[in-house]
Amino acid sequence: MVDRLVNSEANARRIAMVENCFGSSGQPLAEQGRVLVGEGVLTKMCRKKPKARQFFLFNDILVYGNIVINKKKYNKQHVIPLEEVKLESLKDEGQYRNGWLIRTASKSFAVYAATATEKEEWMAHIEKCIEDLLRKSGKQPPSEHAAVWVPDNEAAICMHCKKTQFTVLNRRHHCRKCGSVVCGPCSSKRFVLRTQSEKPLRVCLQCYDELNREKARSNQGQTLGPGAAKAGGDGAGSGGDSSQDDDSDDDDERPVAEDKHDEGFTSYNAVKNGYSSRVTSV
Length: 282
Known about the structure:
Layout: H1 2-22, E1 36-45, E2 50-58, E3 61-69, E4 73-81, E5 86-89, E6 99-103, E7 108-112, H2 116-137, E8 173-174, E9 181-182, E10 189-192, E11 200-203, H3 205-218, E12 266-267
Antiparallel strand pairs: 1-2, 1-7, 1-12, 2-3, 3-4, 5-6, 6-7, 8-9, 10-11
């Protein structure tokens, strides 16, 4: 009983510290039954370039944010329910090593650890939390996940028409359905992808045609409903509004000393048995 009380108090202090590091820019994280399993710095593949992000793994959510001052201040908090997460290991390719995909219905992205051991620990801890959540809730894991965006620097020309070269005027855009980097004319259509947003989102012409065919098949023999029927009317050329194309945690270009891994995954001995494989004292 004493150990359980000590562990509970230590867990509450750690969660309070995480909340304090995000300040008013973050949402409250303390909830009944929530446990901080571990934390660490991972390199997140953002739209423009890979960037260091601080990640916090709880038993029911994954939280990450931009590093302003390491261990003291973070911003642009993102909270991902673990019940929606599917992990997919990535093969090592050149400088990109020890990586895996974090996939959800609304957003998917790649992260990279500093070492193979750290990758193994992160994935094992996350998978254990997901397994426990799904077992307790009786829910099934989601079958549909958002596409992973192709980084800007991997596409010098439009991946749809294979002709348009990207310049200051010919900006890159991302299809929300397949994640490809496309030019304005090749992504002039929008479609409602309800797992990502209730508003029509930019899609490439190929995905737009496929989505409309799927919609027509599903509505065959029925009266067309409001839904995505009007989604294609909002076109945008290469000079159009592409504000929705920006990754919301990819616009802080201030240099920080934390743009490197100075520590591995830190797990806590205050959590329940089964989560912690390599405990670092704190």
